[in-house]
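Quick question: what would this complex look like in 3D?
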Amino acid sequence: MTPRAGMGRNARQRDARTGSRLFLGLLWLLFGLPLPVLALWAAAPGWAWPDLWPAALGGRTAAFVLANRQSIVGALASSTLYSLAVVAVTLCACLAPARLLAFGRFRGRGALEGLLLAPALLPAMGCALGLYGTLVRLGLADTPAGVVLVLSVVSYPYMLRALASGFETMGQEYGRCAANLGAGPWTRLVVVELPLLLPAAVAGGSVVFLVAFSDYFLVQLVGGGVVPSFTGYLFPVLQSPDRGLAAMLSLVFLLVPVALFVLAEGLVLAVYRRRGM
Amino acid sequence: MHPPPAPSAACHAPRGGGSPAAMPPGTVPAQPPGGRSPAWRGAALCPLLVLLLPFLAGVGLTAAQSVGWLLPVQYGPEQALGGIVSPDAWTGWRQLAQPHMFGSLLLGLRVAGAAALLSVAGGALLAYGVWRLPARMQLAALVFRVPLILPHIVVGFLAIVFWSRSGLVSAALHHAGLIAGQAEFPALLWGGDGLGMVIAYTYKELPFVMLLAVASLRRLDPRLTETARMLGAGRWAVLRDVVIPHLAPVLHASFLILFLYAFGAVEIPLLLGESTPAMPGVAAYDLYFLRSLEDRPAAAALLTLLLLCCAGFVAAYVRLVAGLRGRERQL
């Protein structure tokens, strides 16, 4: 018997609560600390080594962002646009195959799924460098279309997996009932299945968006620096000794995904509330 | 990871084509919509071919370029006359048989393996902790998702801010009186063993494992752990005998995904890696872009080798998991 067995009920509960608080504190220290540290670095003109708090705070990096707002906003907008395009392309390409993987029962289904998920498992560079010469010849290198194509190629498995498990959760009954009531395939898809798939599509879309928006290497390779991207703007600064500016731009980077996720959550809630689901 | 949909009582399909004539008129034959016929299946896959074909083409072109075919810039005999040895098909592959190439692959295995192992072990423990938190603390625990939205390059930068010799951890240790100067702080980054990359990958990958593991734990019947506790199992015994076996499929699948990613990726190594040995992806990148054009078959050969290694790991994993499932069924 542990000594705790002899404790009163209240004492044990208090003990458990302290444990939970400690664990939560550990989580915040581990995962929450980087953001305030980035904010401090962004505000500090210099942060000499043994100091745990910068000696002075100022607005140098904020002034830089303001002065260069045109190129920064341009890079953010370009990254957002091509990432949204990647989400749209992967969503359109994956709907029918995801349904097939979720509901189809046929020989070789496992092998087919493995083949379809391969781009997420094999190194993206192995495909991208081989494809690069062809993209140049096709005139797709250094164009947004080429960037969208290559990013879609490496990120569609996440969408496929999310939609397939969405279809599995939904089951086939809704579609069948609609069909029995006389709905054609198109009505069935748009009116019945897509609203039910919305959470899965948002989940898959978030991952695909993050992969596309955070990617540095493929965008730099295929976009050739001609297609503006925020990671392309950020990377040289991260490599430079100017840690303050690097921290500031890292925080600016986070604005878009955070804003978009809040919007997406709001959209799902609004749609479901309007349809009374 | 995803259980097959539970069979429903209502309108269930006779597998393999029941006769529609047996049904009331107007009823849609309840066949799996995706699986009517091979032709139908092919049509469903069509939209994805737009993305799958470029992938397969890219992989095929890389393999072809490794033996000197279909290179974007071909070498004619006139280049060979200019002092360059006339390349034959296996020049690229022969270039791989060098100690630094071997070292680079080994570094990739070590870094990716260590990072994936640490993330899976740490992620499982932290997910268990999150799962046990009372309901009103769950919202605050969402903070663990922060690294998910940080791009790899920013995680690399954070590793520098925290763990370099002039970083915050070193400063904190100095204030705690544990080290007198920066030189006493161990060279975690750029120390030759890739530890900095392990730190960065682990930090980026922990929340990924936690996300999957917490979702899986929410499907675990709490009565199982309660029963185990009632039967006298300690907290660790519950974790070892109930929780970890339940999590195992999620954990080994995420180990594979994370390992393969870190093995081939270049973004964190571009910030935290060293030149020799370089991570395999960076080594291929350098051969392709930073050296002369005649090194491109070697770059393609290295990438082909990486692709083959990854495919081999996946195949080994699939066989291993099938073996595990078989043993479970026997039990």
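Answer marked as accepted. The mean pLDDT of chain A is 89.
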